[in-house]
Design goal:
By secondary structure, the protein is an alpha/beta fold. The protein has 4 helices and 11 strands, in the order βαβββββββββααβα. Strands 1-2-3-4-5-6-7-8-9-11-10 form an 11-stranded mixed sheet, with helices on both faces. Helix 1 links the parallel strand 1 and strand 2.
């Protein structure tokens, strides 16, 4: 175990100490007094590495990460899980914009709200299935150009998705939402239907893990009706550029 007091520490020094610790075989880290340091967990490997973060990490938390678990006991800033390969990021507060950009695998669990462009260009890679679960609401351009993976929007604060351009240009993957919303005001390129038993069996393991991460009732969440959003076409804008 390694504890690092990040108060006033430049982000390069903080990340250097984490990498040096991993190289020495340390598997569990506690980062104290984090205040906006960038790139924590970026590109690091190791399924058994766990980094607990007290404070608010800066942009690009867990970018290109390949295996570890990051636990943020507060809010986090933008670009969480940018092009992440595998592992898990748990945020016990709110998250900023562009969560999971180009995400290829792993899980991101956010207890509260997230900002704009969540899941933009999310795709998956080979057999990997990226999963994002958000407990609250999201901003505009949610799942824009989504090409693969799964996003679950729980709306536990009883609010509908915020903003505009919901699932605009989505051409792959699946979104699940725990609320029957008026979808007519959102993207015309996707279909909105009620989730069936197969969907719920698929979601159960992720929702159980999400609930365990935040010590909330999985049964209450699973007892709700879910709705599924999928693209109606793999080429949603083809008619704009070609007559074929």
């Amino acid at each position: 175990m390694m504890t690092i007091d990040a108060a006033g520490m430049p982000y390069k020094e903080l990340n250097k100490q984490i990498r040096e610790g991993i190289a020495k075989g340390i598997k569990k880290f506690f980062l104290e007094n984090v205040n906006g340091q960038y790139y924590i967990g970026d590109g690091i490997k190791g399924d058994d590495v766990i980094i607990n973060i007290n404070g608010t990490p800066g942009n690009d938390l867990g970018a290109f990460m390949d295996g570890p678990t990051l636990i943020v006991n507060n809010n986090a800033q933008d670009n969480i899980g940018n092009t992440m390969n595998s592992g898990k990021i748990i945020v016990k507060g709110d998250a900023g914009d562009v969560v999971g950009y180009g995400m290829r695998g792993g899980r991101i669990y956010i207890f509260g709200n997230a900002g704009y462009r969540v899941g933009i260009h999310m795709k998956g890679y080979n057999e990997q299935l990226p999963v994002i679960i958000i407990g609250g609401k999201v901003g505009s351009f949610f799942a824009e150009y989504m090409a693969g993976g799964v996003i679950v929007l729980l709306g536990l604060n009883n609010t509908e998705p915020d903003g505009e351009y919901f699932a605009s240009g989505m051409h792959g993957g699946t979104i699940y939402i725990r609320k029957n919303i008026d979808f007519s005001k959102y993207s015309k390129e996707v279909e909105f239907i009620q989730a069936d038993e197969n969907d719920m069996n698929f979601l159960k393991k992720y929702l159980m893990e999400y609930s365990d991460s935040f010590n909330i009732s999985a049964e209450e969440i699973l007892g709700s009706s879910f709705y599924k959003i999928t693209p109606s076409s793999a080429r949603p804008y083809a008619h704009l550029y070609t007559s074929a």
